Amino acid sequence: MLSMKGRGAARLAAAVVASGLIAAGAIATAGTAVADENTPAQGGATATLGGLKTFDQAVVHGEGGEQRIGAGLFEMSVDNGGTLQTYCIDIHNPTQQQARYQEVPWSASSLHNNTDAGKIRWILQNSYPQVNDLAALATKAGAGNLTEKTAAAGTQVAIWRFSDHVKVDALDPAAEKLADYLEKNAKSVAEPKASLKLDPSAVSGKSGSKLGPVTVHTNADSATVSPAAGAPAGVKVVGKDGKPVTSATDGTQLFFDVPKGAADGSTSLTVQAATKVPVGRAFTGIGQHAKSQTQILAGSSESTVSAAATASWKKQGAIPAITADKNCAKGGVDVTASNKGDEAFRFQLSGKDYEVAPGASKTVTVPVAEDQAYEITIKGAGGFKKTFTGVLDCKTAGSGGAKPTPQPSSPAASVGGSTGGGHGTDLAETGASSSTPMIAGIAVGLVAVGGAAVFFLRKKKTGTQAQ
Predict the structure, then answer these.
(1) What residues pair up with 71 in beta bridges, in sequence order?
(2) pLDDT, tens digit (0-9, with 9 covering 90-100), for 398-420
């Protein structure tokens, strides 16, 4: 298990200030016009992938032959402090260099419809690095002697059998026995809760009232609450009792107290904490790294986690609050509009007109094609506009019966070929394909043309269809 890396109050305070300034910049607008923004983060940890750190070799068996790949633990650096260890749950899709990741629920990842997702979490809880007594683990599995590398490889192989439902074996005999033991004994375990989440992430109402509640959900003992820098004069973040709030625990309800007569406007708050991210939380790529292979958490040091919520208010008329969440089960993005005003909120979304009565809310699922970048804009009266962007990544590269696309960035070689010793840290080592001969041809082409440019022409998989 990763050792604790407490950074203290100074680290967390600095992170809170930085996030508050960012939130303020994203929200500062006049009247009912709301700034465009990316799809709101689910809350929790945001991290940068550092590389495949502890691993050995595995063999993937496919229609095109056998392929040897690296199998083991990745390491991520958490924004504002902390380290994560993760395993891959998308074997046919390579990682991207220095990819950025966000903690998400299973419903927003390839695990959303995987009936074996709970077994993967059991494996994580009952194997390396959560179980770091390798002698005891080897005895249970009848694996002889396990090293950190072979324990990581065996654990990864067992996870792939459930996450991607592929035929894959560990090259090392002890690692293979561990993988078989884990696969045979895995039991379904419930999905872990978020390290930090705010619900809802947007509220609205009339000036002269308390807007909310925004409920804090966290596994941290305590979290810091900070209003956005430059919040309108008189606007405060308060608790149920109306008193200003600077800290919160799990279940705390937060409100935006907007004074009567305040000019129409908006603001935000940020909640941050230092805690361990629960084992089994999924991590998906964000921004330009949205297609980097999905990861699942195996271990966490004390890490900085954060979440934000926004508020908007008016004296009269329609007063909307808009949120957007990826819905992998429906193959799209759920856009929810609530209206706390005294007039109906009318808006256009994807070429259709909608209306939300005062005090009501409406959720519209906008279909989005798998692996395609989307830009969803909601427009309303008075210049109201809000845009959500992102990429829907809900399937593994080999799901749906499609034959995986060759991964030109993968250094993996066919069994019997060179693997470079298996001790490098190339981030693409867990990207795999069953089409070894084709990969060999592409590899030659990469050398001839300079290599890296071809990576960006790769598609995650063939036969992608709109959801």
Answers:
(1) 56
(2) 654 333 333 322 333 333 333 33
